[in-house]
Write a structure and sequence with these properties.
By secondary structure, this protein is mainly alpha-helical.
Length: 192
């Protein structure tokens, strides 16, 4: 069995017909409400802006040291990376140079250039720079005497050889120092 809907009495007042005289009052209330809202927003906007500005300044002062540290560390990292790259380049150069020393031809050329070694049967000539000799040395030392002897304009036309082999002289000196006994000096007799 279906029920019928029950109608209940409503407490609503019947709608009154709209009057034209109330419309201007409503419009003026709405416009005054809009002006009040705008005034309230503009007055609060100054307070909000100041609050936001203060928060931004505090945030900047709070975060600034961390940002400075971050950029400082980034700079240090880039400097260290550059140093590492320089060290890697130096290691690569050293490895290349080490491989060169395994070549006997390179070793021979370095011995010739650095130590003035020559192969048997070759003659080596060493040309000295005349501008590097100090010709104004008058100190009276042995070096000054040798400098005077060498600073001549005369160039010999013959090759001179030494009469004694200096290696034999050094070896003989070492052997004599180990074998010979020093002779005691005679003691002076007192004069009466």
């Amino acid at each position: 069995m279906a029920r019928r809907p029950v109608s209940r009495p409503t407490s609503r007042k019947p709608a009154a017909p709209k009057r034209a005289s109330k419309a201007p009052k409503v419009a003026s209330r709405v416009s005054s409400l809009g002006e009040d809202t705008r005034n309230w927003i503009s007055s609060n906007m100054d307070a909000r802006s100041a609050t936001i500005l203060v928060m931004i300044v505090i945030g900047v002062f709070t975060i600034a040291p961390s940002v400075q540290t971050f950029f400082s560390y980034r700079q240090q990292i880039s400097d260290m990376a550059a140093q590492v790259q320089t060290a890697k380049d130096a290691v690569a150069h050293m490895q290349t140079e080490r491989k060169r020393w395994d070549d006997p031809v390179y070793v021979r050329s370095q011995a010739r250039a650095r130590l003035y070694y020559v192969l048997p049967g070759e003659v080596s000539y060493l040309v000295m720079d005349a501008g590097s000799v100090n010709t104004s040395d008058t100190s009276g030392t042995v070096g000054a005497m040798l400098s005077d002897k060498r600073n001549t304009d005369v160039i010999s036309s013959s090759i001179r050889t030494t009469a004694d082999n200096w290696v034999d002289d050094i070896v003989g000196s070492v052997i004599r120092a180990g074998i010979e006994q020093p002779t005691p000096e005679p003691t002076p007799t007192p004069k009466n």
